[in-house]
Amino acid sequence: MRYLAYSLAFIASLAAAQTQAPPKIKTLLITGQNTAGHDWPTVSPLLKKALEDSGRFDVRVVEDFRGAGPETLRGYELVVLNYYDGNNKDNWWGDRAQNALLDFVKSGKGLVMFHFSTAAFNGWDEYEKLSGGNWRPNNGHHSAAHDFTVEVVDPDHPITKGLRKKIRQPNDELYANLKWQPAGTYHVLATAWDEHKLYEGKARQPIPGDGINQPMLWTLNYGQGRVFGTVLGHDGPAVKTPLFVTTFTRGAEWAATGNVTIPAPARIAEGGRDDRQPTVVTPGGAAPPSDAVLLFNGKDMAGWVKHDGQPSGCKAENGEMVCRTGAGDAITAAKFKSAQIHLEFRIPNMPAQKDQLKGNSGVYLQGITEVQVLDSYQNPTYPTGIVGAIYDQYPPLVNAARKPEEWSSYDIVFHAPKCNERGQELAPGTLTVFLNGVLVQDHAALRFQKGMCEAGPILLQDHSGFPGAPDTTMKFRNIWYRPLQ
């Protein structure tokens, strides 16, 4: 029996391993130098993000490749270049580093040649063979950035397979008249029509005729390796378009592996556009929207507990949740991550109190991050402690407090942080908050705290448990949330 159990466990583990996603492609992005018009500090992080968001790449960035060698590239499967030397040989990497790149690709690895990297290393003949096409003196120009159509000319290549034949690229530079290697040494995947009238008579190089199709995407083999070239993506907005992100990530995967598994998004896929209609939701008014999860029914405290799991000490009276000092924190049994949250609250009039003792409560998201509740109508206190503040992190943009005894409302959009499997933050959580219909927190990045990677409850704070805690009766109503996928 023990042998059978071990055998079954082994088979199960083997099956699980076979269904796991393939290992991520180890990628080195070489950047750190360009022209004033090519903002590498902005664009390179966006290139990294596009690759990693695809789920196929693990990207490291190096901003100075001078002095590098084969050991620098050891362990990587792909290099992405966003680099231009400013036509200054002082910015060349040196023979050892440059030969390391050539040998890396020759050995069977991948290279992505991005945009103005085609202009680097003027005078290095082998770099031109590696590139396929290059921006060189008297070879390379463009009209002003504009919308243009990219036409797929090889619909059977893994990079462009499944894409629509014609796809719009908004407000980008259309590179023209590059210096190309001999025909047959590179393979064009997509072109765009360079309309000559857009130069308005200011072209620096001859442009006979009305226009000409220019290569935008291409591939080539270098030794045993693969190179993908793209001249799309001049600036931050241009590298975030569906066309750029799709062809860039698919081209990078092909260069590294010879295959493409990254799907073509519906909006640019062959056969049409994304016609999926949004889910119909009946808007709320006095009542929650039709797809909301109601957290307080106004009749009883079902779904609300204390920290020990016992029923909440707050009471349901006249459709309101009434929480008097000493009742304990009211905590939802429901747990969530990202969500749209609505609640209304009524702060008592406490003229004998001031500062943090005047109508203090709080709305804790996941039971961790507090959106402050306080009587902040003509009641000065520290900025990160007034109503609308993300407590101890951000003051509100404005003080939109109503008078005590008047009902106020919070509308909160909470995005939980992105985390890895070890519970470490990869991207911060954010909060957008409207107080009484007024924006008081605008996509604020949250301080990471333990537990934020997990689903958690909404907690309504009982501000008590310390000497001299004033008797405070907080009221809440119309509490609901909508999970955000």
What does this structure look like?
With 485 residues, this protein is an alpha+beta fold. It is built from 6 helices and 26 strands. It has a 9-stranded mixed β-sheet, sandwiched between helices. Strands 12, 14, 15, 17, 20, 23, 24 and 26 form an 8-stranded antiparallel β-sheet that branches. Strands 13-16-25-18-19 form a 5-stranded antiparallel β-sheet, with no helix packed on it. The chain is elongated and about 85 Å long. The two termini are 45 Å apart.
What's the number of helices? 6
Distance between the first and last residues' Cα: 45 Å
Query: How much helicity do the residues have?
Result: 10-25%
The CATH topology of the largest domain turns out to be Rossmann fold
The overall pLDDT average reads 92
What would you call the shape? Answer: elongated
Helix-strand category: alpha+beta
Rg over alpha carbons: 30 Å
- Unreliable spans are 1-5
Largest sheet: spatial strand order: 2-1-3-4-11-10-9-6-7
| Oligomer category | single chain
CATH architecture call of the largest domain: 3-Layer(aba) Sandwich
Reading off the top of the CATH hierarchy, the class of the largest domain is best stated as Alpha Beta
Biggest sheet overview:
9 strands, mixed
CATH superfamily placement of the largest domain: Class I glutamine amidotransferase (GATase) domain
